[in-house]
Amino acid sequence: MCTANATNSATAAPGDRNVLPKTVTPTHYDVVLTPNPLPPFKYNGTVTILFKVNDDITKISTNALELEIVGNAKLTVLHAKSESTQESTGHSYDESLQAVVFEFANVIPAGSTATLLINFIGEHNDKMAGFYRSAYKDSNGNEKFMVVTQFESTDARRAFPCADEPSLKATFDVTLRVDPALTALSNMNVVNETIVDGLKVVKYARTPIMSTYLVAFAVAEYEYIEDTAHPKQPADAKPIAVRVYTPPGKKEEGRFALEVSCRVLEYFSEYFDIAYPLPKCDHVAIPDFSAGAMENWGLITYREHALLYSEASSSADHKQRVAYVVSHELAHQWFGNLVTMEWWSDLWLNEGFATFVGILAADKLFPEWNLWTKFITTELAGGMRLDSMRSSHPIEVPVADAVEVNQIFDAISYLKGASVIRMLCATLSQEHFMNGVRIYLKRHKYANASTIDLWTALGESSGVNVAKLLYGWTKLVGFPLVTVEKEVIEDDKITLHLSQTRFLATGDLTAAEEANTEAWFIPLRIVTHLSPNTPTDHVLSTKTGTITLPYSRSEFEYYKLNFNATGIYRVKMTEYAIERVGKILKEKNDLLAIEDRVNLVQDTFHLARAGYVSMTLWLSLINNLGSENSFIVLEDTNTNLSDILTMLYRSSPAVKTALQTVRRNIFAPKVSTFGFEFNEDEPYETKQLRTLVLAAAARSEDPSTVAELQARFERFISGDASALNPDLRGLAMSTALKHSTDPDAALAKVLQVYKSATSADLKIACLSSLGFINTFDHAKKVLALTSDASLVKPQDAYIIWNSLSGGSPLPELVRPYLWDQFKAQFNDLHTSFAGSMGLFGHIAGAGVRARAEEEFAEEVGAWMAGKDCASDAEKEDRVKKVNVIKRPMDQSVERVRSNALYLKRDIVNVEKWCAERFR
């Protein structure tokens, strides 16, 4: 458990990690596999590992999980120009290390070179981890299987014995023996292909030195499209062969990703000033995939939904998502693959940076998408949401054991990490930042590095002590709340008296926590009505401070801390300042940049939710948004109204109706402006606004909007595809389910769309809508669909759980049912998802986080501890399995407590505010 005390935030020291002995160091692997995408899905393999021997030893350990070792391992030792051979006398399994230990009769001397040959049998499991199988259907509806890999973070050991740690880099020779009718892919290009004993033997070029988690294989009936990237810089850059591989019949849906990939490879080659080091870059769509995508060097793997885009059936938002995901994974080819974190404690170096520069690249290609403005309500907001909890963790998080790693692929590593880098880039300047990144990559290429190495390089480029500047942002849990304690205006100047403390979503920081919280080094970029686009830069590095800047009285005077929301902190302004901002939002909102408008509204909401101010202040503020037409501001407002209504699911109907009226008053009048028809040539933001306005109006029960969506859905289901633009299909289906008078028929129609959909994103839209079904019995039927793997792929089960948790019109019945079902299915869910990257935690959270009762939080905590178990053995088993998802479970429980505290604190004020305005 992480706290605000920085002394608990240190990275796990190497001696504290549960890792392989350092007696040998691998330098090269020769991997030969015979994949078998047919029952019983067993495959044969041989791996030959070249080691440097560091100590006199009689044992060699390699990671291995769910592999059967065949016979004795054969060892060849070269020492002092003398070669000797011996076989292992036996082997044992170290469960804590997930390692096989080979024992030898003769001492293997330090300073020697050892070659270890291991024969083994593996299984293409159905866990979406290791070298696993993925099911798909051919054009005739027959089920077939491909075999593919997902090794990050610690699942290369499921595929072949190896030293499965990121710092133990080596080169790899890979040979795959496959059915001649299948396509076989690996990280590198094919150098030889022959037919031997009826099998196609494919040998690939040797890889650069790399970590095991980046090795990849894919064997399937694939088709592909291809193009070539032509980077102009640096001088040694060469053309890059780029392909997108898909299951049969889907290759044209990869066209957009192919175009993006070529342009981004060119951009990154120039931005990083380092040539892409491989001759090819393949992108592969996989029907069953636990993550969104995986950056395997030269063979990037994706969920179909994250790679494929159809002009006919995909939404504008989905197009944006594909461009970003491709950019993110390509960023890793340099930042993560070429230079790799030394240990998982620095995971954020990979993911936070790839998130930031992935957006940088996508914004370069598609500036009309305004991705950096959207960053405020997505990446920044997502990172702060988690980091406002006591159960958060530092960016540089202690990781001692492999079982912990998957739990930190979360909003802190990705979103807060990206937000810290964005803040740093704004502080240093883009040029200094880029030059520092180039220094870092060139200095550590083909090696490993840590956070301090990046800070050193950025300091060299900028002259700034980056390590000092960012200490609090990476070493401490949480982020600050900056409070304007008072403001003094005189003589054309304003003096702001400021304080900082840790912001908590529960708003109940204790005196002891405050005493143990160190001050952050906070960049305060401040604008006023006198300089609305030119911030003055200040720093608050102590618990209190004052700042003076030019100011004058006027009708639309204001000041704003955190210009463009580049800083990771909340700001509590004085009542006077908030009144001035409210007047501007209502009468002349173009005086404030969009980024600052959304930041002001966002801060006020989260301050209210945490109890620093009343929610009535935020409600009064958004009542001024009638003339607001910024997608980002309106989207954030709609999201936060939904958040309040989620908490109020057991409150009086009157207050819920009143809040829906607030939403309807903001959005319903805009429906006539945007309508239901899309124009191919209209601006991207117009499309976004139309989708948002219609969704918010429908969710607020605007009768005409609901009726039109219902009518259009009926036309769509009858064969008129033009009745619903792809951006509206999910909304129309959820509206039809929520308002149907015949739920059997409505559910059957949505499932008909789902079963006939050929694009992955339309299938996702269908699943996301199912939770809106309007009877409890049908909600139970919807959840039962997740048990039918032939209908709902296991990778997509969490979508239905989330849809029921957040979308059901019967939350008082459905949310307790989800928790009961999670407990009933817990062992099966653990079996299916314990090895996946986050799916288990997503499902667990769906059953917990939307609740708002302290007694329920206590119940979940007791269940996690096994207090209801009948025996000590059952309790031990429960606790061990829960440990796989302990971080997300703790975070969900804290979310429940935060909800409960909010209602206890403020619901009376909200009820009074609503009653006064909506009698």
What is shown here, in short?
The chain is α+β, with helices and mostly antiparallel strands. 52% of the residues are buried.
Looking at this protein, list some descriptive labels.
disordered N terminus; five-stranded mixed beta sheet; 28 helices; alpha+beta; eight-stranded mixed beta sheet; 919 residues
Trace the largest sheet across and list its strands: 5-4-8-2-1-11-14-13
Indicate the structural class.
Answer: alpha+beta
**Percent helix:** 40-55%
- Beta-strand content bin: 15-25%
Mean of pLDDT:
94
The N- to C-terminal Cα distance equals: 47 Å
Uncertain stretches: 1-12
Oligomeric description of these chains? single chain
Largest sheet: 8 strands, mixed
User: What gross morphology would you assign?
Assistant: globular
Number of strands: 29
Write down the Rg.
Answer: 28 Å
Please count the helical segments.
28
Report what the structure shows.
An 8-stranded mixed sheet has the order 5-4-8-2-1-11-14-13, with no helix packed on it. A 5-stranded mixed sheet has the order 16-17-18-20-19. It has a 4-stranded antiparallel sheet with strand order 9-10-15-12, with no helix packed on it. Residues about 1-10 have low confidence and may be disordered. It is built from 28 helices and 29 strands. α18 (about 705-715) packs across α19 (about 725-740) and α20 (about 745-755) packs antiparallel against α21 (about 760-770). It is α+β, with helices and mostly antiparallel strands and about 900 residues long.
